[in-house]
Write a structure and sequence with these properties.
It is found in: Cytoplasm. A motif ('HIGH' region) lies at residues 126-136. Residues 470-585 form the DALR anticodon binding domain. The chain folds into four domains: 7-89, Gyrase A, domain 2; 117-160 and 267-379, HUPs (Rossmann fold); 167-259; 401-576, Isoleucyl-tRNA Synthetase, Domain 1, CATH 1.10.730. Helix content is 52%, strand content 8%. It has helices at 7-22, 39-53, 57-67, 91-102, 137-152, 169-179, 192-212, 214-228, 232-255, 275-284, 323-336, 352-365, 400-418, 424-444, 456-459, 467-483, 499-509, 511-520, 524-544, 553-576; strands at 74-80, 84-89, 118-122, 156-160, 289-291, 294-297, 312-315, 342-345, 373-376, 382-383, 452-453. The strands form four sheets. A four-stranded parallel beta sheet has the order 4-3-8-9, sandwiched between helices. A hairpin with a 2-residue loop joins strand 5 and strand 6.
């Protein structure tokens, strides 16, 4: 099927054509709206163009009304106020456009980008040998949703999970394992919970020895040197920690209902060999300079409290490399080897200054060009009910697994109370979909750069702006479609639409435009807001427009058609956000 042009775009084009005819000619030839995209009109409207043409805006609007063709697309166009136009789209145009969307399968008539690129999305970055906590939630959820939206528009996305798998703590862990062999079971013999239990035990034990035994501390420091120099025994043991951690990571991401591909886990260690070259190139190009023995990049507009320049440290005075070196090396790889046209980092907003400096250094070096955009999708903090960073009652960081398990348990209570005809197995299956969906939606319905309060009672509520409300709207539609039996959804363009039908239909048509806007702006909350409004408009339609008891067989079919397309749009939109839509609730 061919993509479907939205009613908004068609109306704008029709108005622009009429306005081009109504405007006086300029420079003896071209009307102000000669261009096919009608950019000036769509951006500024009649009032701005009238000023540009030195014309009376209300008179110009009246000329547009005289010129424009009604009928197939527009039922009525009238002048309002100082020069606004009130436009009423024809019922037939709404139904026919929706029918074209319905005929286009899962894409719903949404076109692909004309010039798709390659976007590398850096998200979901846990640390090896450490538990994932609530602070890891937003990067994973937001990054996954952004990939879903970008992929749907035709962009090719490449995931990169820049896990913390390198650094001084591995000297301590590896040395302890050498001195206590058999403490770490092979990765293929444990599940996620066992893997994390093993890692926690070894981390605590090694830390205790490291803090109390100076000789062990010295051996651990030497082990770091062995790791960085590529000693085989050390690297083999390091790999065991990585493999065991991955077992744990995958178990958590599975609970989050996210697919994490092994080839997209490219941690800090992957850039270890390239960091010396990165430092050399930066110094040779004059982008980085030596200062007090360290290799740093300075920026005129970035200064500290004492008005001294804040440097980006590429290489420490002792020769070690930090985050800047690995991030700059990663940019080189992603642009030069992956041919990325966009780099998207879903990272805590508190690292915004770091990435601002990294991006600027990369531009000075020529690794980021005008053809490559880099954006730090800084996200806010998950807060508790007290408005402070979310902690346990004991003041500890909340384990991500515990948080997800509690969400599923709360959801099970809601599902069990609402759906009396489900088996216990079905209740548990729905609870996972509802609970995880609730956690994701609460995150995604908030602008990423804002903090938000984690309130499970609100998240799993059937009322208000929650994923449960959307999932229930979808399940209600499926129930209606099942009750319809042999009567199938059919669009009847000849029928007049009730106000609630029109409102629902016009909103359904805006799905593609919304997805493109949300993807372009890296704004999943805009798609979430669209879906909530869609569910709200459907609720109003359901209350005001009988479906199975409509006045005629054609009206029953047409309203079933609106129900079906609403369900498909909810399903597709929620899927882009990484949220499932159960058939029954």
């Amino acid at each position: 099927m061919a993509p479907v042009t939205s009613l908004t775009a068609n109306v704008n084009q029709r108005l622009a054509d009429a306005l081009a005819s109504a405007l006086p000619e300029t420079d003896g030839a071209d009307p102000l709206l000669r261009r096919s995209d009608r950019a000036d009109y769509q951006a500024n409207g009649i009032l701005a163009l009238a000023k540009k043409a030195k014309a009376n805006p209300r008179e110009l609007a009246a000329k547009v009304v005289e010129t424009i063709e009604n009928g197939d697309l527009l039922a009525e166009v009238e002048v309002s106020g100082p020069g606004f136009l009130n436009v009423t789209v024809a019922d037939r145009a709404i139904t026919e456009t929706l029918a074209a969307r319905a005929a286009d399968g899962d894409r719903l008539g949404v076109p692909l980008k004309a010039d798709p690129g390659i976007t590398v999305v850096d998200y979901a970055q846990p640390n090896v040998a450490k538990e994932m906590h609530v602070g890891h939630l937003r990067s994973a959820v937001i990054g996954d949703a952004l990939r879903g939206m970008l992929d749907f528009t035709g962009e090719r996305t490449v995931g990169r999970h820049h896990i913390g798998d390198w650094g001084t703590q591995f000297g301590m862990l590896i040395q302890y394992l050498i001195e206590h062999p058999g403490e770490l079971a092979p990765a293929d013999e444990v599940d996620g919970e066992q893997a994390m239990s093993n890692l926690n035990r070894i981390y605590k034990a090694s830390r205790a020895v490291f803090d109390s035994d100076e000789e062990f501390k010295e051996r651990a420091r030497k082990r770091v040197v062995a790791l960085q120099s590529g000693d085989k025994e050390t690297l083999d043991l390091w790999q065991r920690f990585v493999d065991e951690s991955k077992v744990y990571f995958y178990s958590v991401f599975e609970k989050l209902d996210m697919e994490i591909r092994d080839d997209e886990i490219v941690g800090e260690s992957a850039y270890n060999e390239g960091m010396p070259e990165t430092a050399r190139l930066l110094e040779e190009m004059g982008v980085a300079v030596r200062s007090e023995g360290a290799l740093v990049v300075f920026f005129d507009d970035i200064r500290g409290k004492d008005d001294q320049p804040v440097p980006l440290i590429v290489q420490k005075a002792d020769g070690g490399f930090g985050y800047a070196a690995s991030d700059l090396t990663a940019i080189r790889n992603r642009v030069q080897d992956l041919h990325a046209t966009s780099l998207l980092y879903v990272v805590d907003v508190r690292q915004s200054l770091h990435f601002k400096m990294v991006f600027e250094a990369a531009r000075r070096a020529g690794w980021l060009t005008d053809d490559v955009t880099a954006h730090n999708m800084g996200y806010g903090t998950v807060l508790g009910a007290d408005g402070k960073p979310f902690k346990t009652r004991e003041g500890e960081t909340v384990r991500l697994e515990d948080l997800l398990d509690e969400a599923v348990q709360r959801a099970a209570e809601v599902v069990r109370e609402k759906a009396r005809d489900l088996t216990e197995e079905e209740i548990q299956e729905r609870a996972a979909q509802v609970g995880i969906g609730a956690v994701k939606y609460a995150d995604l319905s908030t602008s990423p750069n804002r903090d938000y309060k984690f309130d499970l009672d609100q998240m799993v509520s059937l009322n208000g702006d929650t994923s449960v409300y959307l999932q229930y709207a979808y399940a209600r539609i499926q129930s209606i479609l099942r009750k319809a039996g042999e009567t199938k959804p059919v669009a009847h363009a000849e029928l007049e639409l009730a106000p609630a039908e029109r409102a629902l239909g016009l909103h359904l048509d805006a799905f593609g435009d919304t997805v493109f806007e949300a993807a372009a702006e890296y704004a999943p909350h805009k798609l979430a807001a669209y879906l909530y409004q869609l569910a709200s408009l459907y609720t109003s339609f359901y209350d005001k427009c009988p479906v199975l008891k409509a006045d005629s067989a054609q009206q029953v079919e047409n309203r079933l058609f609106l129900c079906d397309l609403t369900a498909r749009t909810l399903h597709r939109g929620m899927a882009l956000l990484g949220i499932r839509t159960p058939e029954r609730l």
